[in-house]
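Reviewers of the previous submission asked for a worked example of the structure-prediction workflow described in the proposal, so we include one complete record here. The input consisted solely of the amino acid sequence. No template or homolog information was supplied to the procedure at any stage.
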Amino acid sequence: MATVQELRRIHYLADCPPGRLRALAPACRRIAFRKGQIIQAEHVPLQAVHAVLNGEVLLHRTSSGTGAARLAVVRSGEMFGIGETLLPVTYTAAAALTACRLLAVDRNLFIRRFLAVPSIRNHVMRDLSSMARFLVCKITGGGGRQDLALYLRSQADACGVPEDNRIRLRTKQRQPEIASLLNLSREHVSRLFARLKAEGAVDFNRGHPLIDRDWLEREVPDRNLAASVRYRDIRVRL
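From that input alone, the workflow returned the following structure tokens.
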């Protein structure tokens, strides 16, 4: 059984009062995995929602059209499997990127007991809402342009420096790495940047993007959405 201290380290549970955490603790079981060990398979009924106590877990798809696709790394204090609790089968696989310890919560218990807690339910709904907003933007934006704009917005907020009417990113950005982050081809990203340069929206100075401030505000008015997008780790290898 998990301890209250362990549960409090989980992002979704951090706002729960101690009494509520003590009531939820019996539903959580500790489980350890070796590096490379499969935690969750793809296209099977979800058995449990997991929280990472320590170590790292890789989420990936093995049946994407272009082969295996690495999606995200889940780290200490984060959970995975929540988005699949109401689906008939899983759509991602999970494997231990490092040796790790997890908490496993039976799918039905998570739905009945954890989602009955208002603070947990609100966290989950906010995250699912962000995912839905991102998908709407992706569908309506088309062609990868919106994906790139959201990424540039997140980088501008994280490491941007104002320069007149432009924002210069302090960190260098390589187009092949951006293509990998956005799951787009290098050629496609090169074409997107060429179009943005022709429009006067984005330019490069020794590898540092210079972004037109007005263009960025028009293209991505929802800064909270840009901040909510989680980009997969491009150097991950299982």
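The two ends are 30 Å apart (CA to CA). We consider this example representative of the routine output the project will generate in years two and three.
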